Structures are given as structure tokens and as C-alpha cells.
Amino acid sequence: MAHAYIVETARTAGGRRGGALRDWHPANLGAEVLNALVARSGIDGAVIDDVIVGCVSQGGEQSFAFGRNCVLASNLPQSVPAVTIDRQCGSSQQAVQFAAQAVMSGTQDVVVAMGVESMTRVPMGSNVSLYAKAGLGEGPFSDRIEARYGTKNFSQFIGAEMVAQKHGFTRAELDAYALESHRRATAARDGGAFDAEIIPLAIDGGMHTRDEGIRDDATLDGISSVKLLDPDGMISAANASQICDGAAGVLVVSEAALKKYKLTPKARIVNLTVTAGDPVIMLEEPLPATDRALERAGMKIDDIDLFEVNEAFAPIPMAWAKHTGADPAKLNVNGGAIALGHPLGASGARLMTTLVHSLHARGQRYGLQTMCEGGGIANVTIIEAL
């Protein structure tokens, strides 16, 4: 079977809502990732067969063939095509998988998989709410969906509460997990773990090179004092992912391209899995998806050295670890979205970037990435560091 290889990765440092990246047009964020991938790999941008861009809120500045606009804003020649995809929070992880599939099929040799989301300039859900305010249509969930599931209120917040309750977690446990995310992210940043990942971006007053969401002074008392989203629930803004602006990308190539362009692979893609389940509880799908991915790869959970499980809400990686029996010390070792932020469509490529770098930094071999996605979907990608 043909293989797909990751030869380069890059990401911006996360920006808080209204923070350091507020003046950056999202197409320009994407362009900087493209420029960095080309510069770091040393390839001629003209040899890129396609650019696959994950983006969730495809409206406003992230509309009108957004992926193509990232190319047009970059240093790449206009001959490079692009496409924009939406698999909700897993959009750029799916971009990586589509890129790998293109390479493994032999139809393409050099593909960029990336994601971009400016949640400051294109707020979450704005592509839906604008139509609702204008009184256009019935929204994304039709009467047939309502008849099948008894609701049109498909909410990730409700799903997170359902997962927490189903797996028997307490508010205190969720808050303790959130604190650990900040502690690990602080240690990773201060130890230089993110330095090689991050593309410096010019902002007022200097360069943006540090993830803004990390709270060095986070305490359990402070996290526990944050108001609950539902007074009868367990989820708060402090034990959920942060709204974030950012972009990330991965350069995926074939073995033929490795030889032709004299590239050095950082990782080989071992398994690509996507599954779907209950759209009401919605966020639990990474659990069975991981089971399936490991089975298809002929591996066991203990064969994996590091895990990146997106911290959309604290109960998701917690339930995943409980279900799989994974060693918590191997999970999100540099913190996760609770501390670093979750720029929706960019998070998949951000996690992959961190996973590749983390494996190399530790001299370890196998990594697994997964995340929950709107509609009850989950992607799982297993890689081997080279």
C-alpha cells in the first residue's frame, strides 16, 4: 500500500477573542501558514497539487471560496488550487485525512492540509444566526430531523453535560482537569515546547509568538468560582475550550515526492478513521471511533505513546481516557484547548502539529489524535514519527 508522509507543520499562536490577532484577516492568517510550510520545507510552492482548508464559520471574511482566498493572499502562485471543507471541529483533521487519501491513492503527490478560524472577526454561529435574524428559512435542522430525534436543539453544551453525567464525573473533577491543562500548557510554553511550531506574526507592539489563553496564575478556587452555563449542570467557561483565533497546517506528500524533492519526513500516517453516532449526546463519538481505529490498525491502546484528544469540554478527554484505559500521563501532555484555545476549524491541524513535535521531542514513535465534532462525528488519525 502507498504511504502518506508529513514533512512539515506550522501554526500560529492562539489569540484570545478580541486579542492579539483581532486585526488579522483570516485569509491572511491562512496565507502565513502556507508561506511557512513552503519556506520550512524548501519546496517550490508551484508543485502543490491542492490546498484543503478546514473552516467552520464560513461566512463574512471566511466565505466565498475561503480556502482559495488563503492561497491568493499567500506567496503561492495562482496556479495552486484550494477547497474549503466543514466537518465542524474536526474540519482540519479531516483535511489531513483527505490529503493523505489523495496521496495514498496516487492521484496527487503534494497536498497542504490546514485550518483557519478567526472567532473574533467571524463569531461562532454567525453564518447561521444572520439568516435567522433575517427570517430566512427554518435553520439547519429540517422537520424530518426533528421527527427522527424529537428535537431541533442539537447543542454541544447539552452534549457535554450528558457525557459528564453518563460517565459519573463531578464538577470538582472537571475543574481539576482544567487546572491541569493550564499547568501543562504553562510548562510546555516555558520549556520551549511550542517554539518550533509557532509562526511569529506581526502585531501592534511587536510579534505574536505565545498562546494568549494560557493562565499562568490559574487556581482551582478560581476555576471553581466561574459561573456554570447551566445552574443544574457541571460545565463552565473555565472547564471548556476557549474561543480562539488561529491557523495551522500540515504538508502531506507521497514517497515519490520525498525522493523527487529531497524531503525529510517527520511522520508517516498509519491509520485514518472517521465514524458517526448519536447526534444528541454528540460529543461521545471519539470513544468508539478510537476502538475502531485501533482495531483497523492492528494496535492496542498501550502501543500508542502520546494522545491528543481535543479538550472541547473537560468531560470529553476524561471520558475517552476512562473508556480506553489510556495512561493520563500520555494524554495532552502539553495542555489542550482549555488552556490553548479551540479555533474550531483550525484545531485539527493544530493538534497534529503539536503531536508531531511532541513525539520527536520525546523520542517516541506512535501518536493518536481524535476529537468530538458537531453532529456526533469523530475523526481518529494515528501517526508514526520518523
Which tags fit this structure?
Thiolase-like, acyltransferase, alpha/beta, plasmid, Steroid 3-ketoacyl-CoA thiolase, eleven-stranded mixed β-sheet, acetyl-CoA C-acyltransferase activity, two-stranded antiparallel ribbon, globular
Instruction: Tell the overall outline.
Output: globular
Q: What kind of sheet is the major sheet?
A: 11 strands, mixed
Q: Averaging pLDDT over every residue, what do you get? A: 96
Structural class: alpha/beta
N-to-C series of helices and strands? EEHEHEHEHHHHEEEHEHEHEHHHEE
Rg (C-alpha, Å): 20 Å
Give the end-to-end Cα distance, rounded to a whole number of Å.
Answer: 18 Å
Task: Enumerate how many helices there are, as a single number.
Answer: 13
Amount of helix? 25-40%
**Low-confidence blocks of residues:** none
Per DSSP E runs of 2 or more residues, the count of β-strands stands at 13
Q: Tell me the fraction of residues in β-strands, as a range.
A: 15-25%
Q: Name the assembly state.
A: single chain
Descriptive report:
The protein is of the alpha/beta class. It is 35% helix and 20% strand. It has helices at residues 26-41, 66-72, 91-105, 126-133, 143-149, 156-166, 171-190, 220-224, 255-260, 286-297, 315-324, 337-340, 347-362; strands spanning 4-12, 15-16, 50-54, 82-85, 110-118, 198-199, 201-203, 206-208, 244-254, 267-276, 306-309, 366-373, 377-385. Strands 1, 2, 3, 4, 5, 6, 9, 10, 11, 12 and 13 form an 11-stranded mixed sheet that branches. A two-stranded antiparallel sheet has the order 7-8. It starts with a strand and ends with a strand. The model has no long low-confidence stretch (mean pLDDT 96).
